[in-house]
Design brief:
The protein has about 170 residues and is mainly alpha-helical. The chain has helices spanning about 1-5, 15-25, 25-30, 60-80, 95-110, 120-135, 140-145, 150-160, and strands at about 40, 45, 55-60.
Length: about 170
C-alpha cells in the first residue's frame, strides 16, 4: 500500500493519508490533521482526538516522517493557506471524514487489496497497527493509549486479542 500511495507525492494526499493511518490516527483525526500538528524533529504528531478517541501524541515511523515532511513542505510552499495535511480546510467535518475513507479506498484498490469480492477499510489498517503495537510493547494499555482508546476491551478487539474468559473456561 505504501508503494501505491506514493504516486504523485507530495502533490497528492494519498501517502500522507496512509502514513497517518499507519501511525494510529483514525479517519476523523486524519481529516483534521494539520501541518502544525507535526513535530518532525521529535518524530511525532499530536492529535486533539475525536468523538471516540482521546487526544495524544503518536510516534512517527521512518516512512511516515518522510512522506509527511514532504507533504508539509509542499503545502507550505505551494498552498500556504492549506494547513490540513489530507483534506481541504473548507470541507465540512463529515465531508472531510468521508473524503479520508474515499482516499483510503482508492489506495486499497490501486494496491489490489480491495476488490469487488473483498473490501478493505481504514479499520483494517487500525487492526494491523494495534497488533503491531501489541507485538512491539506487549502492553494492551499501550495499544489503547496510542490509538486514543479509553477502553482496554476496544484495544483488545482491535489487536485481535481475546483477553477475558468466562467461568466455564470459554472466551467472552
Amino acid at each position: 500500500m505504501q508503494f501505491h500511495s506514493e504516486r504523485g507525492m507530495p502533490a497528492t494526499r494519498d501517502a500522507a493519508l496512509l502514513a497517518l493511518l499507519l501511525t494510529g490516527l483514525h479517519s476523523a483525526e486524519i481529516a483534521i490533521a494539520a501541518t502544525t500538528d507535526l513535530d518532525l524533529e521529535a518524530c511525532e504528531i499530536t492529535t486533539a482526538g475525536a468523538t471516540y478517541t482521546e487526544a495524544r501524541t503518536c510516534p512517527l515511523f521512518d516512512w511516515a516522517r518522510y512522506v509527511l515532511g514532504l507533504r508539509r513542505t509542499y503545502l507550505t510552499e505551494k498552498h500556504p493557506a492549506q494547513r490540513r495535511l489530507v483534506v481541504n480546510i473548507r470541507s465540512a467535518p463529515h465531508v472531510a471524514q468521508s473524503s479520508v475513507g474515499s482516499g483510503f479506498g482508492d489506495i486499497a484498490r490501486r494496491s489490489g487489496l480491495s476488490t469487488a469480492a473483498r473490501k478493505v477499510e481504514p479499520r483494517d489498517v487500525t487492526r494491523f497497527v494495534a497488533t503491531r503495537i501489541l507485538d512491539e510493547t506487549g502492553s494492551l494499555s499501550e495499544v489503547a493509549r496510542r490509538l486514543g482508546l479509553s477502553s482496554l476491551d476496544s484495544a483488545a478487539g482491535y489487536a485481535g486479542l481475546q483477553w477475558k474468559t468466562t467461568r466455564g473456561g470459554g472466551t467472552a
